[in-house]
Amino acid sequence: MANSYYKGLDTISVSDIEALGVSSGVARKLYREVSEIVAAHGPASPETWTHISKRVLNPGLPFSFHQMMYYGCYKDFGPDPPAWLPDPKSAVLTNVGHLLERRGKEFLGSSYKDPISSFSDFQEFSVSNPEVYWRTVFEEMKISFSVPPQCILRESPPGESPLSNPGGQWLPGAILNPAKNCLTFNSKRNPDHVAIRWRDEGNDHLPVNSVTLEELRSDVWFVAHALDALGLERGSAIAIDMPMNVKSVVIYLAIVLAGYAVVSIADSFAPVEISTRLRISNAKAIFTQDLIIRGDKSIPLYSRVVDAQAPMAIVIPTKGSSFSVKLRNDDISWHDFLERVKKSRGDEFRAVEQPVETFTNILFSSGTTGDPKAIPWTLATPLKAAADGWSHLDIRKGDIVCWPTNLGWMMGPWIVYASLLNGATIALYNGSPLGSGFAKFVQASISFLFL
Question: Which residues neighbour 429 within 8 Å (Cβ) at sequence distance 6 or greater?
């Protein structure tokens, strides 16, 4: 353990600091400041580190002095001392902190102190009391079921193979539609709530675009009506091979709302990789674009889908309404796809509610060591994604969340649910995240950036 090699803060001397290359005058000043903090808060308390990190440390001091302070403060803490501790006032404002301030004594009894001191106890409570914990989180996120679960977790009954439900069965008997939950108005999400903020690469001089939840819901309903008009069997797999933009998010939610299963395919894949995923999932249709625009480059996408011998493709023009390629006979342009149900524009689509064990998304491993492995999401997985966002990332109403990714990878669907189900806004940059345009987009509109 690195901290075992360091002295405690109450035993450090001026000469110890000088030995790190700090001048005598600065070393004496640092020693006085550290001594005052130790006298007020002790040599090894969270408050001690908070004051040292704010009052004593700065980038101009040797890194070895930073280490001396850190490991000296946490000398007896154990193998994994914390690098940062939240401010108590800020901790109360988090999702978990707010919940514990309201119900901490109900959960933990008289042992409850405050959100920081009692966090480990609450984590243990969440594991040992899944019925209470998960019902509480679902209530916090305003999750609705058309048929509520019989319980949160049911262990495999005698005689049933544990392989059928490893670890037990989650939310048995529940019937729901996670896309419907994303689009429902409640105290977290009203019609004017901004569901998506986005910008196209090269439009740095223009304001950031916004889509309200009411607009998103209307678009999703419209696409869901058009999907129904295709006549596919309910539960059929429908692939998406597109960049993550507003249209692909609308399509994703529409597929789920209409009771089909999304097949996630990254827009960077070669034809053979697309073909493998379509074959494994038995996809009946695929949404794609003619091209991907990155700066001044036009990257073919539809042609790769054709080379993969994909089933019927619904093809979206990257710019305007005209294509730069000729479509196969059985493929459909985005315009014609929607034109079939133009009279349904604005009509509510009644969500298809299904048992919780129904597959809603088929993702894949990377396939770098062999054929990709299918990773199916059930209807419970979106709730877990949103719950992780609620508890671990503290995604809240009003946050604007950006994670440069793709619906072909797990984080694409994850960010849709983690944002919308927590009342946050998805931030989408339609272009490369490596240039100054993306940095300007982040500065203009984002409160959460994950890389």
Answer: 198, 199, 201, 402, 404, 437, 438, 441
Task: List, run by run, the mean pLDDT of 10-residue segments along the chain (451 residues).
Answer: 76 96 96 96 87 94 95 84 81 95 96 92 96 97 97 80 78 97 93 95 91 98 97 97 97 98 96 96 97 86 96 91 83 96 95 98 87 94 98 94 94 97 96 90 81 64
Q: How far apart are CA 176 and CA 381, in angstroms?
A: 12
Are 331 and 243 members of one domain?
yes
Question: Last residue of a domain, which of 73, 108, 135?
Answer: 73
Cβ neighbors of 88 (< 8 A, separation 6 or more) are: 114, 115, 116
Dist. CA 184–CA 221, nearest whole Å:
12
The CB density around residue 362, as the number of other CB atoms within 10 Å, is 21
Among 178, 292, 313, 181, CA closest to 238: 313
CA dihedral sign, ordered 401, 407, 408, 413: positive
190 shares a domain with 144: no
Return phi, psi of residue 440, to 5°: -65, -35
Boundary of a domain, candidates 25, 41, 73: 73
Residue 82 lies in a domain: no
Which residues neighbour 64 within 8 Å (Cβ) at sequence distance 6 or greater? 20, 21
Angle between helices 381-391 and 95-108 (to 10 degrees): 100
Does any domain span residue 303?
Answer: yes
DSSP 147: B
Residue 411 and residue 312 in one domain: yes
Cα 187 to Cα 178: distance, rounded to the nearest angstrom:
17
**DSSP reduced 3-state for 6:** coil
Nearest Cα neighbor of 407 from 287, 229, 281, 280 is 287
Number of domains forming the structure of the chain: 3
Residue 321: per-residue pLDDT? 67
3-state secondary structure (DSSP) of residue 393: coil
Range of the domain at 398: 178-449
> At residue 61, what is the residue type?
L
